[in-house]
Amino acid sequence: MLVHRRGAGRRALSLVAALIVALPMIVVGQNRADAAPGPSFTNPVVPAPNSADPTLVQYNGQYYYVATTWTSNILMRRSSTIAGLRSAQERRIFTATQNTGCCTMWAPHLEQINNRWYIYYSVAPRAGYGSRRTHVLESAANDPMGPYTYRGVLNLMPNDGWAIDGAVLKLNGALYFHYSAFHADKLQSIYIAPMSSPTSVSAYGTRISAPTLAWERQGQPVNEGSFALQRNGRTFLTYSASYCGTADYKLGMLEYRGGNPLEASSWTKFPSPIFQRSNANGVYGPGHHSFFTSPDGTEIWIAYHANSSASQGCGTTRTTRVQKISWNADGTPNLGVPVPTSKVLAPPSGEAARSGS
């Protein structure tokens, strides 16, 4: 997400446990279904301008895609193949008109909970109406395309404080909302808050990660754009680090070690980035990502934005790319190296041999 320097309960409710059915945060281990190969493709899969900060979800054999638009509109693409996303129609899902959040929509995040879909996004307010905050929409039925109803603002920080890049974590039978905000020490950090429902939190968030390592502080010290990945009983929280206006925007990772998820001591930060620029492949500033499953459930893929020039910065030049991830012998995710745009990629496993939206 574009970030410039700005002044800027702890209980799991039984209601939350009852609500949770499925989340696009990735939990590995689904049943496989045979499907014919789909078409190969090259990156980027979605071109500029509405292609930064992507969330890509695979649901019932269809891909659903949302990203930053820089306007008051949330737009969604749908396609039965990754290759088809490039030409898929952008459909307007919602237009923000509230005084508290009307303009320059960033980083929409699509989640399925209890047979409803939710879109979490941040918008700037009209002049005189406070800070950029996170808002939420709820679908009328179990269709990612909506229609959606506006459900309000998540009260994540004291004094209606600035909060962006939010997503949902399912952990120990409860829902948590993780996001990026400024701490009193002026560091843009990762926070987590307990949720009382998919549209509200029951307490302000607490910080679980600050940009303290050198590779998290290039350009500006930043932690943002977090996304959960779970496998074999382990929970990883991956996030973007350093300033998005540099070619050194990259991904880092936390792991949940047990205990109260709202306490920083329950999380361990990995000492090195897990995904970063590749000068050899011509990929710069890869970050603000999501993960999605292949149609047959056997593969995990990453969707992320990146630039093709080190000087392009943090605007509308960033395009969405995807590639398959793997797993290290120690059980941690291996995201590999960002692939060049010239590389032809096979589609996700089980993708149907048809294109379109």
TrEMBL record:
It comes from the Bacteria. InterPro entries: Glyco_hydro_43, Glyco_hydro_beta-prop_sf. Keywords: Glycosidase, Hydrolase, Signal. GO terms for molecular function: hydrolase activity, hydrolyzing O-glycosyl compounds. Gene3D superfamilies: Glycosyl hydrolase domain, family 43. Residues 336-357 are annotated as: Disordered. Belongs to the glycosyl hydrolase 43 family. This is Family 43 glycosylhydrolase. It comes from Lentzea alba.
